[in-house]
Amino acid sequence: MSPELANLILASTLDTLYMVAVATLIGTLVGLPLGIFLATSGKGELFEAVAVNRVLGLVVNAARSTPFIILVVAIIPFTRLIAGTSIGTTAAIVPLSIAAAPFIARIVEAAVREVDQGLVEASLAMGATPLQIVRKVLIPEALPGLVLGVTLAIVSLLSNSAMVGAVGGGGLGDLGIRYGYQRFMPEVMVIVVIVLILLVQSVQTLGETLARRVNRRLRRS
Question: Are residues 56 and 37 in contact, defined by beta-carbon separation less than 8 angstroms?
């Protein structure tokens, strides 16, 4: 491998990590409260708002069911408005974040709904407010599932970040298309695939390790 190619792979890997990290942060900041609200705003729940719950559920389902490559193209005007351009790593963060938020929201909703409702009822009986229950009961109890959910979201974002390279998003996907496909350098494509596999495996292993540690800590407490 030439030094030039090695530098390209390193730079593209860093671009991919940058896109995924920022999109994960934004997606979590939006998806976490949204998922908690979806899990606690049904009939008879902490923040009962059935109509709002249904509308948000439809919006989340619509966003999740849209193929990512179509989403990228469809929101190009919005991406330009936010990032000032529709190409490059910073621009790619916009569709990645929009795709991540509803994905994380559904994961959070599922994790929160798995919490024993007896704990919620006991907290209400002791005079805890809904916000206190969310902060001190629901989130801590659902934390192992939340960690695994965010891990799954990161893996999905790594896949999407490679896909966004097809429309000039930068990162490893862009490198694989420009050099591996357009310049007929199959070795570059192989290296890109290997790097992506290593990234996914590293994220999955780290996420599972953190989830086990959190779970053991909850059981001890």
Answer: yes
- From residue 173, give the alpha-carbon distance in Å to each of 12, 36, 103, 130: 8, 33, 22, 44
Task: Give the tens place of pLDDT for each residue, 43-52.
Answer: 888 888 899 9
The CATH number that applies at residue 197 is: 1.10.3720.10
Query: How many domains would you assign to the chain?
Result: 1
User: What is the Cα–Cα distance from 214 to 94, expressed in whole angstroms?
Assistant: 31
**Parts of the chain with a pLDDT under 50:** none
Q: Where are the alpha helices (DSSP H) in the chain?
A: 3-40, 50-65, 68-74, 76-83, 89-113, 117-125, 130-133, 139-163, 171-175, 186-220
Sign of CA dihedral 125, 131, 136, 142: positive
pTM of the model: 0.88
Contact 89, 14 (CB under 8 A): no
Containing structural domain, residue 185: 3-220
